[in-house]
Write a structure and sequence with these properties.
globular
Amino acid sequence: MLHTRSKLLIAWFVACTPQAPSSEARTHDLIAAAPVTTTAATSASAPAPTQRLQRWMESELLYRIRVRDFRGLERSLEALATVAPPAYARWAEVAERASQAAKDHDVDAVRKGCAACHQQYRARYRAASMELDIDRLIERSRK
């Protein structure tokens, strides 16, 4: 039940994240033109790295956004930028901009950064069977 609640919370978070209409979208916002699509239920056969990254994002990023722990959020987003997979060209850039927004205590800009990354990479990351160094991410986010 808790796992389902977490998925629903993430789906709600993504759905409630403000998105600029395409006529107002700007290149520096890093928001892709494609609409955000999420589903509350995911396949039970999802690769383990995907689940580990999702758990980390829920426990580190989503939690820190909710309690407005901007220093911890900045540190976690910086760590996320350092583990960007090479095939995901703008992952680090989006994470770094979101980290700067956390440094500026701009929670709306942090949410936009998270939504932009999810919009660009979530489906592709879930479909891939690549390994992301989650242990390194956890270690760096706690320094």
